[in-house]
Design goal:
Residues 299-318, 328-337 have a biased composition (Acidic residues). With 355 residues, this protein is an all-alpha fold. It contains 18 helices and two strands. It has helices at residues 2-7, 28-32, 79-84, 90-106, 111-124, 129-141, 145-159, 165-174, 178-188, 194-210, 214-220, 235-248, 252-265, 273-280, 284-290, 305-332, 334-338, 346-354; strands at residues 9-12, 22-25. It is globular and about 60 Å long. The model is unreliable at 1-18, 22-55 and 307-355 (pLDDT under 50).
Amino acid sequence: MQATEAASTEVVSDSPDTEAPVERKFDRDEERRPRRDEGDRRPRREDRPREERPRREGDAPFDSGPAVPEGADYAKLDVEARAGLRSLPKSLAEMIGKHLVAAGMLIDEDPQRALVHARYARERAARVAVVREAAGLTAYHAGEWAEALSELRAVRRMSGGNAHVAVMADCERAMGRPEKALELAKEAGSDLPADVAVELRIVSAGARRDMGQLEAAVVALQGPDLDPKRHDPWSARLFYAYADNLEAAGRTDDAIRWFLNAAQVDDDEDTDAAERAFALGADEAEVAAVLPGETLEIEVEPLPADETDTDAEVDAEPLADKASDGEAVADESDEAVDSVPRADTAADKDSTDRG
């Protein structure tokens, strides 16, 4: 018993003259810790060089990150995004804002480069929802499905909304998990903004199609807004997706009709609905009817060289006959030559043939 107490006690004495020793007891956890020699003592935080200290959100940046393209100004950031950055110091918020603007500028033409800017912003402001949202959407456009899903899950936890549930479900599809996509759609419920609900239906139909449920995919897109008389902002995408799934299900005539419906409401020409309809058998008149004032460019395969030469020889024979007749008339009299109509000349005849 005395040995145990002695092991858990240290006697600290400043000098031999101290009358009563001071005892300091340690708990068991401290007894188990390995003792370090004085030379192994870790430097205190203030002793460490600045570059070795762990970075904290809000610290002054060590560098400004990748070069932003010309025109990527903080002032171009939308009001909602700027409000989301107010929790950061002003200088950091402005720097992060520039990289978010750069990501938005590049996301369509160079998504990989846009992702570099979004990742840089995310590394320095990971607790800001608008930054995580930008990182997730940029990763989605760059084809980084797992990264996009992780970021958008974080946004949903931080904001509590389902604004990006369709993108999340599509990421699950892209990673070969259509069942997970359908689970997300079911969890989201029906209380969604109209545009989000339509996008989620399109993704759910794609998931059904991935699973081989072709007719179920068609049914998943049906609803009151699947009406050719409607012209909502999402109508072109909905009609196009419906036509695409009809074609996959083998219902070609219905697919043509809905591709034409999609082309008619596709004011921004975001889809190739008219070309798809023509490829499936729609005639030019049908396509032209849904594209007022526009011309559908259709690639026509050139004829083989031997057929082209044969046609040229056939077209040349009447011209030769006309030329012979003209010479015969010319032999009769100069007056007859003057009376030959200009339309019978070879140049004009060729022009007429082309017409």
